[in-house]
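Notes from the 1:1 (GR / supervisor)

We went over the backlog. Supervisor wanted to see one worked example end to end before approving the batch request, so GR pasted a single chain during the call. The sequence is below; no edits were made to it. Supervisor asked that the structure be written out right there so they could see what the output format looks like.
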Amino acid sequence: MSKTPMQALEFSRRSTAEMRDRAGAMLDELSARRSVRHFSPEPVPLDVIRTCIAAAATAPSGAHKQPWTFVLVTDPATKQRIREAAEEEEEAFYGGRAGERWLADLEPFATTSHKPMLTDAPALIAVMAQRYGSDKTDRHYYVQESVGIAAGFLLAALHHAGLATLTHTPSPMRFLAEILGRPDNERPYLLIPVGYPVDACQVPSIDRKPLDQVLVEP
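Structure output shown during the call:
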């Protein structure tokens, strides 16, 4: 017997035709999502970003611990500090921390340690993973998996709302917790610049793996 109060599930059962239409529409929309590295400084409606973060926070999590914090950064001085610290880590990465194969795989995308998007984009979202709750006795479970799902929800919601994003993961990211004054139970998981792309923005011409290469049905 569950000790959690229960309620009736709100579930809309749809016809097969409607399910196919909705699934196809979602595929088409997400297929158009691209990582953007060239952002316009034009302001974006922050209430839209907050709503997208609320959508991300509906993600499932281990034991419903909801082990995430989303830090919305718009202050130019804070963004500048984040950029300087990130570029310092990226210089070490491109200068020797990354192996030759890793750098070779990155070469087609022409990425460098220079990260102007961190100050050009009007907003940054730092996704933080909570290792535990208010104290160390409040254990969190499947933290990486749970926060990863929430981050996926967030990227989809931002794209659906009409905003461009980039998933940025300088490693290590300890500087992010320090700059943002986050508590000891949080560790940086992902940094997401958010905004509008510059006019005539260019992105790499790439293909995604076809379904028969990612789906297995034994």
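Supervisor's comment: The chain has a mean pLDDT of 96.
Batch request approved.
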